[in-house]
Amino acid sequence: MIFCLTAYYAAVQSFDGRRPRWWQALPAVSVLGVIAWFSMVTESFAVRLVYCAVIWGGLMVATIHSLCRGATAKMPASRRILIGIFAVVLIYHLVRVIIYLRADLDDAFAIESGDHWLNVVSPIFMTLLAIVGTTAFLLMCSDHLRQQLEVAASTDYLTGLVNRRTLALRGATRFEAAQDRGQAFAVAVLDLDNFKSINDTYGHDVGDLVLIDIANCLKLNAGPESVVARAGGEEFTVLLRDRDIASAAAATERLRQAVEQTEFHMGMTTIPVTLSAGVAVYRAGDRKFEDVLRRADQALYRAKAGGRNRVEVARLAAVPA
């Protein structure tokens, strides 16, 4: 059982991305020597019991600590169940040791015999908890896999930003809030200038590094309430909380300047990077999020045609009936 607990502790560590250490097996190995010595050389049931209890309890406490340490802000039910199981086993283990010690048993007493009622209850109890614990661990693995799949489906693999699918969902949510509660928002579409020349000159690997740096720069300067997404290729989209076109344009201009002022290095060479942007604000006549996005996209085209490295705002054209 102690070797099983050692393996369980290592499994929990590996599950949370921490590498188990070889010396973690030493306590379980030492138990073999203690049991052998105090069974065959100097018989002492109390010494065997107490030593094994300390190692066993320590392993369970370490496993509980590892499970709590690896938990996220929203702990899944499977992890809570597993923590609860180990806590129940720990309490049972302590009660069992106390009962054995108070029973004043002979030094030749063996827990494998049927001479005490705990010798019968313990195997049944531990077997049931092992089955439930294994099931909970498998559920925890399933929850972790589901979370990984959700992250993979909602984020861009290169930059770590939300992807176009998630942008559409977030945009639809903000659009509904704007319609129902008047919480206006803005959309900025940003596109790197002459990005193809960077790929052609320095290679696609360098181009990817530039995209990662741009993503970090935008996320750092967009503000905590903004949503920065990679729409595809060298195009990014930012959902802003600004309620009017002037403040939205100013926020987008700050992003443009932040990118322009950031130095991207390739060895001893500095790669100049700029972007063009179009920005639009929600209007009462918009029917869906894509209407706001489309107007921001049209403004981006004008920024490109107007010389690049600039911000254009959406024109106040009438909304189709």
Describe this structure in words.
By secondary structure, this protein is an alpha+beta fold. The protein has 10 helices and 7 strands. The strands form 2 sheets. A 5-stranded mixed β-sheet has the order 2-3-1-6-7, sandwiched between helices. Helix 1 (2-15) runs parallel beside helix 3, helix 2 (26-41) packs antiparallel against helix 3 (45-69) and helix 7 (195-202) packs across helix 8. The longest helix is centred in the middle third of the chain and has 38 residues, at 117-154. The radius of gyration is 31 Å and the shape is elongated. The mean pLDDT is 89.
Task: Walk me through the topology.
Layout: H1 2-15, H2 26-41, H3 45-69, H4 77-102, H5 117-154, H6 164-181, E1 186-192, H7 195-202, H8 204-222, E2 227-232, E3 235-240, H9 245-261, E4 264-266, E5 269-271, E6 275-281, H10 289-305, E7 311-313
Parallel strand pairs: 6-7
Antiparallel strand pairs: 1-3, 1-6, 2-3, 4-5
Helix pairs in contact: 1-3, 2-3, 3-4, 4-5, 7-8, 8-9
